[in-house]
Amino acid sequence: MEERKTYIVANWKMNFTMDESSIFLHKLAQKITPAKNLEIILAPSIFTLQSLSLQVDYKQFRLAAQNFYHKDFGAYTGEVAVAQLKGIAEYGLVGHSERRHIFGETIEDTGHKVAAAIRSKVVPILCIGETMSERADGEESDVIYDQLIGGLSGITSHHIKDVIIAYEPVWAISTGGGGTVSAICSPDDLASTIKIIRSHIKHLYGAKVSQNIRVLFGGSVNVENIMSYLQVDGVDGALVGGASLNVESFSNIIKKTKEIRQAKR
Ligand code: PGA
């Protein structure tokens, strides 16, 4: 059986100038040795993507866009088409909770974006996750179902293998993993939600797809907790925000990831 890949995605959000990104990449590259079936993906801000694409060693890293528009070209001032990412970014985040909650991105928008990414051969990383109040109201499973069914609305069973899902509970994002108890997603919480996600996928695409689809976790992942999350059954990697902004901590996350991959063999 083919070994599953692990994905570690650095979501730099709106941080780093061009020079800072370039220096970060240079320092990180010196600390990382490529490993089979471990994909390290950097998602810098859109304006540094192109320069990093010229600097990056693709044996070490891949690049992702944090956002894009679903139309291929046209009069959409200020937007970047997923078609324009071709040859620059292999991956694109869709529906990150900050896009949904700060910029009003709807479930329909995420469906258009996932479909556009597939059309342009960019791998969409569809971010899903419930808020604290939705969780408190027991709506977690329904919210996730709606986000999945809407985000994947244009995706046939042929293309679903090209989609990555990232579960990011909104209440656990940017809490540093050291805040109140309610702000940390425990490995047990994660395990039960991963089961929910895979069972929704089974309902939509069947048992085989639900086993094979790649599901990542994000929400205050750091060097202390990465191992406990990657040990959860059905987790294929992590989406890292704050802890990816420091070369030392991000490279240590990658080292821990390699250790856990070795231990799992
Ligand atoms: P965080 O961000 O690791 O800082 O919580 C994760 C994300 O928003 O993707």
What would you note in describing this structure?
- The protein is α/β, with parallel strands linked by helices.
- It has one domain: Aldolase class I (TIM Barrel, Alpha-Beta Barrel), CATH 3.20.20.70.
- The chain contains ten helices and eight strands.
- The chain has helices at 18-31, 46-55, 97-102, 107-119, 132-136, 140-151, 187-205, 207-212, 226-230, 247-264, and strands spanning 6-11, 38-43, 61-65, 91-94, 123-128, 164-167, 214-218, 237-240.
- Strands 1-2-3-4-5-6-7-8 form an eight-stranded parallel β-barrel, surrounded by five helices.
- Mean pLDDT is 94; it is low at 177-181.
- The structure holds 2-phosphoglycolic acid.
- 2-phosphoglycolic acid binds at residues 11, 168, 173-174, 218-221, 239-243.
Short description:
The protein contains ten helices and eight strands. It has 265 residues and is an alpha/beta fold.
Number of domains: 1
CATH superfamily: Aldolase class I
Strands across the major sheet, in which order? 1-2-3-4-5-6-7-8
Biggest beta sheet summary: 8 strands, parallel, barrel
Strand content: 15-25%
Strand/helix succession: EHEHEEHHEHHEHHEHEH
- Low confidence ranges: 177-181
Structural class designation: alpha/beta
CATH class: Alpha Beta
